[in-house]
Amino acid sequence: MLVLFGTNLKLNHNIGFFAVCLMFLSSCSSIRHVPDDEYLLKRARFKIENSESDLSRSERVALRNDFTALQRQAPNSRFVMMPLRLWMYNSVNPEKDNRYTRFMQKAGEAPVVFDSASADLSIRQMQQYLVNKGFFNSELSYVAQTARRPQRMNLVFEVNPRQGYRYRNVSIDVRDDSLGNLFNDWTNRTLLKSGDPYSVDILDDERARIVRRVRNSGFWAFNRDNVEFLVDSSLNAHQMDIIMIVNPPKIGGHHEKYTFADVYIFPDERANRSQGRTFDTTTHSARRHRTDTLDYHFIHSRPLQIKPQVIASKLLIQPGAPYNLNTVERTYENLLDLRVFRSTNISVQPQPIDTNNPNFLLNTIIEVQQAPVNMWATEFEVTNASSLQGTNISTSFQNRNLFGGAEIFSLRLRGLVEVQHLFNKNKRDAVNARLLDNFDVGISANLDFPRFITPFYIQRSSVSRARTQVSLGYSYRYRWEYYNRQVIGASFAYSWRQPRVSHTLFPLDINWVNISLTDDFQTRIDSISKANMRLQYQYKNHFIFASRYSFSFSGQQGSRPSSFNAFRFSIESSGNSLYLLSNLLNAPKTEEGQYRFLGLAYAQYIRTDADFRRYWHLTGSQFLVTRLMGGVGFAYGNSDVGGSKVLPYEKGFFAGGNNNIRAWPMNLLGPGSFDAEMANIERIGDIVLVGNVEYRFPIRGAFKGALFVDAGNIWIRGDNDLFPNGNFEWKNVPTDLAVGGGVGLRWDLNFFVLRLDAAAPLRNPAKPNGEKWVIDNMRFRDFVLNFGIGYPF
Question: Strand ranges (DSSP E) for 481-532?
Answer without folding.
Answer: 483-498, 501-517
